[in-house]
C-alpha cells in the first residue's frame, strides 16, 4: 500500500469546537455573559409587564399572579425539553457524531411542536376550572381567564422560540440566542403600554393587551431564532431534516435529561398554586405581594439561569470529549459567579424593599405585607446560587433525576407543608420562613448529590486515558 493510498484512507477530523479548546474562564464568560444580558432583559420584561398591569388595578395584578402557575408549567415543558436537546446535542458535538447532532435537532423540534399542541388543547379544557378552584373573586377570575386564554391558545411561538434558541446554545452561539431573547423582551416592553392603555392608533385592550403583547413578541423572537439557525448555525445540517421520521431512541435520550428538568421546574407551579391558596386565606393582597416578589426575584435569578445556559453545553461537550479537568473548572467557576450574583441580590432586597414595591404602584397594605416578605424570603438566596448551579451540572452529566428529586423534596415535601403549618399560627410573616427551611434542606441534599455525581461521572474520566482521534 503506497503513501497516497494511506492518505486517502485517513478521514479528516472536524475542527474542534471552541468549547473544547478555549481557556475555561474566558469560555464560560464568553458564553454566559450574552445569556446573562438576555436574561436580565427578560427579567426587566417580567417586571415591566407586571408594573403596567398593576396600573389597571390591584385585582389585575392578583389575576396575573394566580395565572402564573399555569404559565410556568407551559414554560417548564418548553425549557425542560430544551435542556434535554441542549445536553444531547452538545455531547454529540463533543463526540464528533454529526448524524446524531442532526437527528437530535430534528427530533427536538418535533417534540416541542407536539408539546405546544397539547397545551393548546388544555387551554380549551381547564382554564376556567383552574381559576374556579382557587375560589377568588369574580373580577379576578375574569381578568385571569382573559389573560391566560390568550397566552395558552397561542403558545406555539414560545415553544418555537425556546427550541431554536436552545439549538443556538447547544453549538455555542450564545450571542445570537441573546439577540433573540433581548429582541422579544424589548418588543414586549414596548407593546405592553400601547395595547393595555390604547396609545395612539392601538386599541385599549386592558389585561388582554398584556397577553397579546407577550405572544406577539414571542412570535417575532421565534422567527428571528429560526433565521439565525438557518444562516449561522453551521454545526447543525438543517438540510438533513428532509425526510424526517421521529426516532423513539433519540426522544428517550432527550427526555432522560429533559423530563427531570420539566418535573423539577413544573414543581414550582404546584408550589406557587398551593402557596397562593394558603395566602388567599389571609388576603388577596398577600397573593399580589407574592407575585411582586416573583417578578423582583427574577432579576436576581435570571442572571444565574443565564450562567447555567452558558455552563451546560460546556460541561456536556467536555464530558463527551473526556476532558474532566475542564468539567471541574467550569463547575467551580460557575458556583463562584452564581453565589456572588445571589449575594448582590440579597443586599438589594434587604436594603431597598419599599423602593422596589413602589415600582408596582403599591398601596399601603401591599407595602405593609411586602417589606417583611422581601426581607425574609431573600435570606434563602445565600444557598440558592450553589443549589441552582449544581442542579444544572447534574442535568449536563445525564443525572437529571437527582435534580428532580431535590426539587421535589424542596418544594413539595418541605416548603409547602412548612408554609401550611406556619400559616396555622395566623401570622402571615411566619409563612415566608418556609423558604429558609426548604433551602436549608435543599443545600444538604445537593451537597450529597454532588459528591455522588463526582464519583460516578467525573472521577472515572480522571483515571482513564483520553481516546485518540480516529
Short description:
This protein is mainly α and 470 residues long. The protein has helices spanning 3-9, 24-54, 58-94, 98-132, 138-153, 156-170, 174-197, 207-232, 248-280, 284-320, 324-351, 353-358, 364-377, 381-396, 400-423, 428-431, 433-463. Helix 3 packs antiparallel against helix 4, helix 3 packs parallel to helix 5 (138-153) and helix 6 packs parallel to helix 8 (207-232).
Structure notes:
The protein has 470 residues and is mainly alpha-helical. The chain has one domain (21-463). The protein is 82% helix and 0% strand. It contains 17 helices and no strands. It has helices at 3-9, 24-54, 58-94, 98-132, 138-153, 156-170, 174-197, 207-232, 248-280, 284-320, 324-351, 353-358, 364-377, 381-396, 400-423, 428-431, 433-463. The protein is globular. The two termini are 19 Å apart. Mean pLDDT is 85; it is low at 5-11.
Question: Cα distance, first to last residue?
Answer: 19 Å
Query: Which percent band covers the strand fraction?
Result: under 5%
Structural class: mainly alpha
Characterize the overall form: globular
Radius of gyration: 23 Å
Average of pLDDT: 85
Helical content stands at over 70%
Indicate the low-confidence ranges by residue numbers.
5-11
Largest sheet: none
Return the string of H and E elements: HHHHHHHHHHHHHHHHH
The total count of strands amounts to: 0
DSSP summary: helix tally? 17
Number of domains: 1
What's the structural blueprint in terms of helices and strands?
Blueprint: H1 3-9, H2 24-54, H3 58-94, H4 98-132, H5 138-153, H6 156-170, H7 174-197, H8 207-232, H9 248-280, H10 284-320, H11 324-351, H12 353-358, H13 364-377, H14 381-396, H15 400-423, H16 428-431, H17 433-463
Helix pairs in contact: 2-3, 2-7, 2-10, 3-4, 3-5, 3-6, 3-9, 3-10, 4-5, 4-6, 5-8, 6-7, 6-8, 7-8, 9-15, 10-11, 10-13, 10-14, 11-14, 11-17, 14-15, 14-17, 15-17
Amino acid at each position: 500500500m503506497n503513501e497516497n493510498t494511506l492518505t486517502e484512507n485517513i478521514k479528516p477530523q472536524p475542527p474542534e469546537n471552541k468549547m473544547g479548546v478555549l481557556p475555561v474562564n474566558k469560555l464560560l464568560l464568553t458564553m454566559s455573559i450574552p445569556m446573562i444580558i438576555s436574561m436580565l432583559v427578560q427579567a426587566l420584561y417580567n417586571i415591566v409587564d407586571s408594573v403596567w398591569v398593576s396600573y389597571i388595578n390591584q385585582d389585575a395584578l392578583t389575576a396575573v399572579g394566580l395565572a402564573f402557575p399555569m404559565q410556568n408549567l407551559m414554560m417548564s415543558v418548553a425549557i425542560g425539553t430544551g435542556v434535554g436537546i441542549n445536553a444531547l446535542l452538545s455531547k454529540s458535538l463533543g463526540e464528533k457524531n454529526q448524524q446524531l447532532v442532526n437527528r437530535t435537532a430534528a427530533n427536538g423540534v418535533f417534540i416541542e411542536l407536539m408539546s405546544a399542541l397539547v397545551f393548546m388543547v388544555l387551554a380549551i379544557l381547564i382554564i376556567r376550572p383552574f381559576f374556579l378552584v382557587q375560589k377568588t373573586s369574580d373580577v379576578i377570575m375574569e381578568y385571569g381567564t382573559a389573560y391566560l386564554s390568550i397566552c395558552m391558545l397561542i403558545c406555539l411561538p414560545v415553544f418555537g422560540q425556546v427550541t431554536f434558541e436552545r439549538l443556538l446554545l447547544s453549538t455555542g452561539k450564545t450571542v445570537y440566542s441573546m439577540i433573540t431573547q433581548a429582541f422579544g423582551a424589548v418588543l414586549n416592553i414596548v407593546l405592553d403600554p400601547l395595547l393595555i392603555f390604547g396609545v395612539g392608533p392601538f386599541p385599549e385592550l386592558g389585561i388582554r393587551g398584556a397577553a397579546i403583547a407577550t405572544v406577539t413578541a414571542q412570535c417575532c423572537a421565534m422567527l428571528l431564532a429560526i433565521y439565525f439557525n438557518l444562516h449561522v448555525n453551521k454545526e447543525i445540517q438543517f438540510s438533513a431534516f428532509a425526510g424526517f421520521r421521529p426516532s423513539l431512541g433519540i426522544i428517550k435520550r432527550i427526555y432522560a435529561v429533559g423530563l427531570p428538568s420539566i418535573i423539577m421546574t413544573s414543581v414550582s407551579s404546584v408550589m406557587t398554586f398551593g402557596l397562593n391558596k394558603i395566602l388567599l386565606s389571609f388576603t388577596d393582597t398577600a397573593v399580589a405581594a407574592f407575585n411582586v416578589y416573583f417578578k423582583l426575584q427574577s432579576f436576581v435569578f435570571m442572571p444565574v439561569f443565564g450562567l447555567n445556559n452558558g455552563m451546560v453545553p460546556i460541561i456536556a461537550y467536555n464530558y463527551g470529549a473526556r476532558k474532566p479537568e475542564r468539567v471541574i473548572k467550569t463547575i467551580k467557576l460557575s458556583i463562584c459567579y452564581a453565589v456572588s450574583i445571589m449575594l448582590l441580590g440579597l443586599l438589594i432586597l434587604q436594603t431597598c424593599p419599599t423602593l422596589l414595591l413602589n415600582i408596582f404602584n403599591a398601596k399601603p397594605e401591599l407595602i405593609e405585607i411586602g417589606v417583611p416578605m422581601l426581607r425574609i424570603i431573600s435570606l434563602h438566596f445565600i444557598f440558592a446560587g450553589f443549589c441552582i448551579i449544581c442542579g444544572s451540572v447534574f442535568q449536563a452529566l445525564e443525572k437529571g433525576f437527582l435534580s428532580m428529586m431535590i426539587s421535589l423534596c424542596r418544594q413539595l415535601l418541605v416548603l409547602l407543608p412548612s408554609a401550611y403549618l406556619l400559616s396555622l399560627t395566623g401570622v402571615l410573616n411566619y409563612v415566608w420562613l418556609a423558604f429558609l427551611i426548604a433551602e436549608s434542606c435543599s443545600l444538604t441534599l445537593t451537597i450529597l448529590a454532588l459528591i455522588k455525581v463526582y464519583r460516578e461521572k467525573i472521577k472515572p474520566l480522571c483515571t482513564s486515558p483520553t481516546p485518540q482521534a480516529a
